[in-house]
Amino acid sequence: MKANWKRTLLSLVLCAGFVWPAGAVSTGQPAASQTGTSTAQSKPAAYTVKKMGLLGVKRTVESDNNTVKMLNKTAASLDSSSYMSGSASGATGESEIAIYAALIEDMKKAMDGLDTTSDLYKTYAAQLKVLEDYQTSLNQNAVSGMQQAMAMLSQLDDAAYTLRKQAKNVSGQLALGAQTMLITIKNLGYTKENLQVTLTQLDRNLAVLKTQRKLGMIGQLQLDTVQNQRDKLAQSIDTLETTRENLGSSVALMCGLDANTIVMPADFETLYEGNLDKMSYQKDLEQAQKNSFLIWQKQDAVRSAYNAYDKNISGTAEAVKSAEDALAAARESVVAAFDSTYKTVKDCRTTLAAKRTAQSQAELDLKTATVKYRKGIISKLAYQQAQDAVTTAKLNVESAYLSLYTAYNQYEWAKEGVLITTAAA
């Protein structure tokens, strides 16, 4: 039994030893792994679009991802199997002891009133001695069996607890990755809109160039060059949409949805300035360290090393030192990762403020251009360019807002102990 649950635990940990590659979350690119969440290469021929927000993605990963379900199910089965095995073995031992206690009691009653010097009494006495010796043996075995059963229960409880910690960590990593990809899909939508603004500008320029070509004002090469730029840009827009759909397919797989489903972003919750103002580096760092799976893992290794330590056994002291060094490295790694996440939020907040200022300036420029256009001071093309500048500025603000949204979302996960670190797991 002991060997079986250890092999089960080892295989599950190897299967679910999910470590998100450095940079994968921040870039929104899914990583192939043994969790059943490999990157989608192309969209299905026929697919269903499911719109989800960040909270919906998190809940779906927790409830439907195959790896998370497997770890939780196995943890639950370890609990139940240890309880059942302990109950069954205890009942069997108690039954045998009760039988021999009854036999001894009957034997003593049979001996009452007999002549202690008679052969019958001596025969009964010899049989009673055998019964009592066997009862003593059973009692000793029962105590030993109970100790073994308690040890097994403790081992199974530890295994179940470890699996639940592993499940929570894997679930957090997957949910964070899926959420970040969902935000990336939305951000790529803004990029697509920006490219479409540029495409519209090129179409307007092409219309002018074609007229100029007919009048002999420009050569064919100049017209062809702009036309090629326009065609390549249109192709890039199509490629961008395919990328969004592929990411949506990857999010669906990470959520445990079927292969014919693509997840696209629904409306996100508003990020309030007050939440950003409440960020407390030291307090939040302490929370991140407390919740870190990596730190817990290394602390557990230190406990195991101390339990195995014996000054008379070579290598055990070195094992303790190695485990302590690994724990210190893990703490440093978590601090560094948290520090980077904290600074990213601050930087994104500064960038968003700058983009909003640029939008305000573009809107002022458009007001000026509108007055000039109505008075005939500037051309329609210049007026349209001022309109495009406002559209681009708005899209830049939305993109910067999403970058801040992504950074803050990762910061919130960091407080829960889900961080991208460089320390070996």
TrEMBL record:
Signal peptide start and end residues: 1-24
Coiled-coil positions: 192-246
UniProt superkingdom: Bacteria
Keywords: Coiled coil, Signal
Protein name listed in UniProt: TolC family protein
Organism: Butyricicoccus faecihominis
Biological classification of the source: Bacteria, Bacillati, Bacillota, Clostridia, Eubacteriales
